[in-house]
Design brief:
- There is one protein chain.
- The chain has 81 residues and is mostly helical.
- 43% of the residues lie in helices and 0% in strands.
- The protein is built from four helices and no strands.
- The protein starts with 7 loop residues before the first helix and ends in a 19-residue tail after the last helix.
Length: 81
């Protein structure tokens, strides 16, 4: 078994019954399948290694044509101790 800092069984038990947003940690699970971010995600999932930085920079350069960006949005998930 490979080394892992997080015990998968313990994490699954902790998340069971918690917020539904935590069940799917993929881009589509968090943001849906629409928009420019989804298209960039489809391309970047297939890229590995040093090419990732190149492709990421290309996506940042000219693909965003959307509306305003809400800098005051609170998308954090708060955990109780």
């Amino acid at each position: 078994m490979p080394f892992s800092r997080v015990d998968a069984a313990a994490a699954a038990a902790l998340l069971q019954g918690k917020d539904e947003r935590l069940q799917d940690n993929s881009y589509r699970g968090a943001c849906g399948a629409a928009g420019w971010g989804s298209k960039a995600n489809d391309v970047l999932l297939k890229v590995k290694g040093d090419r990732f930085r190149h492709e990421k920079t290309k996506k940042k350069r000219g693909t965003y044509r959307g509306g305003t960006i809400d800098v005051g949005a609170d998308n954090m998930i708060h955990f109780d101790d």
